[in-house]
Amino acid sequence: MRTLICVSQDQMGSGDTELGRKILATYLRKAVAIDGLDAIAFYNSGVRLLADGSPVLAELSMLAERGVDLLPCGTCVAHLGITLRVGAISDMDSIVQHMSSAQKVITLG
C-alpha cells in the first residue's frame, strides 16, 4: 500500500516541546514498519527536522537509506533559511502528486 506521512511541525503533538520531540523520534524509528511507506512530506516548521540540530536526523537518514523519499517544501526551507542535511528540495506540486497517488496519507500533528 502506497503510504505518505505529512509532517507540519518539528514535534509530535502540542504541549511540552521536549516530549513532542521525543515521541516524534520514537515514531520515526518505528515508521519503517509502516506497510508501503513511500515518502514523508515536510512543510512549515517540519522542514527543520531535516537540518543541522534536528533531534531526528539519524532516524530520517535511516528511512532515506531504506528508500523512503523525504520531500521538504522548498518554499518553507527558503523562508526559514535552513540548509538540509538529508532529503532534497521538493515543491508543492511534487507533494500534491505524492498525496494524490498515495493509498494512505498519515498526518502528524
Question: In terms of topology, how is this protein built?
Answer:
Blueprint: E1 3-7, H1 17-30, E2 37-42, H2 57-65, E3 69-72, H3 74-80, H4 92-101, E4 104-108
Parallel strand pairs: 1-2, 1-4, 2-3
Overall average residue pLDDT: 92
CATH architecture annotation: 3-Layer(aba) Sandwich
Round the Cα radius of gyration to an integer and report it.
13 Å
In which range does the helix fraction lie? 25-40%
Query: What is the strand tally?
Result: 4
Please trace the helix and strand order, writing H or E for each element.
Answer: EHEHEHHE
Structural class based on helices, strands and sheet pairing? alpha/beta
Largest sheet: 4 strands, parallel
Strand order of the largest sheet: 3-2-1-4
The overall number of domains is 1
Which spans of ≥5 residues are poorly predicted at pLDDT below 50? Answer: none
- The count of helical stretches stands at 4
CATH class: Alpha Beta
Oligomeric status of the shown chains? single chain
What is the H level of CATH, i.e. the homologous superfamily?
DsrEFH-like
Task: Please name the CATH topology.
Answer: Hypothetical Protein Ychn, Chain: A
Instruction: Tell me the strand percentage band.
Output: 15-25%
Distance from N terminus to C terminus (CA atoms, Å) equals 22 Å
Rough outline: globular
